[in-house]
Amino acid sequence: MFERFEPDARQAVTHARQEAGWAGQDKIRSEHMLLGLLREPGLAADALVAAGLDVESVRRQIPQGSRYLPGELDGDALATLGIDLDAVRRATDAAFGPGAIDRARVPGRSRLPFADDAKQTLVGAVREAQHQGQRTISSAHMLLGILDQPGSGALTVLRQSGADVPALRADLLRRLAAAA
């Protein structure tokens, strides 16, 4: 499915999958796609940063799913074995960065399906690339796919972040034209 996607767009999807998993979600949603685009250097990230967005502030606005996943660490159970989960968390955070223990992969959770709005993001990206006469799909086309979905969660996050959506779209189109 992703053979026409440029490397930045493919990597943004990979980042979106990670974000959904880290958030404890059962599906990849458009909000996760937005985070994936922000994390991957390219036209979309450049336009989003120029609009005043950053990964951490956007991440804080995205709803978290159930944090209990099969195989999640149970502090009380570990305490009965003499293991201090808080100490383990501090050591893990020091070695691998804040929240690393919560981002660890859980077996069976690596292939999350796409929610409808994420699918529509991808469909919109393909449509936008075709409309512009381009054979490949970039991160910019993916962001346009988000911006063209009136009811998507990602668009809600953009608005809550204070982004001027029409100005963001215009800036993105300018960047695409300059890159062509």
What report would you give on this structure?
The protein has 180 residues and is mainly α. Helices cover 61% and strands 0% of the residues. The chain folds into two domains: 7-65 and 113-179, Clp, N-terminal domain (Double Clp-N motif); 72-105, no CATH class. It contains eleven helices and no strands. Mean pLDDT is 86; it is low at 66-71. The chain has helices at 7-22, 30-39, 43-50, 55-61, 75-79, 85-96, 100-103, 116-131, 139-147, 153-160, 165-179.
Question: What keyword list fits this structure?
Answer:
mainly alpha, Double Clp-N motif
CATH-defined superfamily of the largest domain: Clp, N-terminal domain
Q: Note the total helix count.
A: 11
Q: Report the average pLDDT across residues.
A: 86
Domain count: 2
- Sheet bearing the most strands, described? none
CATH top-level class of the largest domain? Mainly Alpha
Q: If classified by CATH, what would the architecture of the largest domain be?
A: Orthogonal Bundle
Query: What is the string of SSEs from the N terminus onward?
Result: HHHHHHHHHHH
Report the count of strand segments.
0
